[in-house]
Amino acid sequence: MNDNINWIAAIVAGILGYFPGALWYSPALFVKPWARELGIDLTSPPTPKHGKLISPIGMAISLVTAIIFAHIVGSAPALGHALLFALACAGGLVATSFAIQYLYEGRSLTFWAINAGYHLLQFSLFAIVLALWP
Question: Residue 30's closest CA among 16, 44, 18, 40?
Answer without folding.
Answer: 40
